[in-house]
Design brief:
By secondary structure, this protein is α+β, with helices and mostly antiparallel strands. It has six helices and 13 strands. Pfam families: CT_C_D.
């Protein structure tokens, strides 16, 4: 871990711990999150952990820029990694099908796999939740197997259905709401991520882990899933 503090706004600092994404980072990011929350107390407005950084928004009426930086240095000196086993483990059922996962054939071909093998690879690993963002309940997860890692679409879709499961480079995620998006879509889940977030109880939190499970269309429908096909580049 190499601590750097960068100015991110009038009342915000970017706390950079690493330069590259790695699963091992999460234990340090979670430890830093807890230490900073304790160090800033009621002077903390918001703290957003991510793959390699934490964005810290503090109350400038209570702390100067210099004082905020000093608190960060003090809080993170002699930091020890957190126990990532404390995070919740989630199993997310996914209906993998070309009608709702239109990028399945292209991603499989790029990886030199059959569609069935691609689905197996995506379901095989357990993914850590590194950060929340983009939309309420949207968890950035990783790291996807190098063999199936696929760059984002050159031209994003104007509309991606809620529950869509996709990958971008070595990340995977679930769209909680209908929205534009440039991730490669593989399938869809009926798990209502946005409803959890709306109640202030996001299902996925940094430090949690997720494993995807392939289910049939019948099971997906029984869970209340929307089978409306995705229109290519809609």
């Amino acid at each position: 871990m190499k601590l750097r503090i960068e100015t991110a706004g009038m009342e915000a600092l970017m706390v950079r711990l690493f330069d590259t994404i790695d699963v091992a980072n999460m234990a340090w990011v979670l430890a830093a999150d807890q230490a900073l929350r304790e160090a800033f107390g009621d002077a903390l407005i918001d703290l957003v952990p991510s793959y390699t950084t934490l964005l810290l928004h503090y109350d400038a009426r209570k702390l100067s820029h210099v004082e905020a930086q000093a608190r960060i240095h003090h809080a993170l000196t002699d930091l020890t990694p957190a126990d990532t086993r404390q995070g919740q483990r989630h199993e997310i059922p996914v209906w993998y099908d070309e009608s709702v996962g239109p990028d399945l054939p292209r991603v499989a071909k790029r990886a030199g796999l059959s569609i069935a093998e691609l689905i197996d690879r995506h379901c095989r690993d357990e993914y850590g939740v590194f950060a929340l963002g983009f939309a309420p309940g949207y968890g950035f997860m990783g790291l996807v197997d190098d063999a199936i890692a696929t760059p984002r679409l050159t031209t994003p879709r104007r509309h991606v259905a809620a529950g869509s499961v996709g990958i971008a480079d070595r990340q995977t995620a679930i769209y909680p709401l209908p929205s534009p998006g440039g991730w490669n879509l593989l399938g869809r889940t009926a798990v209502p991520l946005f409803e959890h977030a709306k109640r202030g109880e996001p299902l996925l939190r940094p430090g949690d882990s997720v494993r995807f499970r392939s289910i049939s269309r019948a099971d997906f429908e029984a869970q209340g899933g929307d089978t409306t096909p995705m229109e290519e580049r809609s």
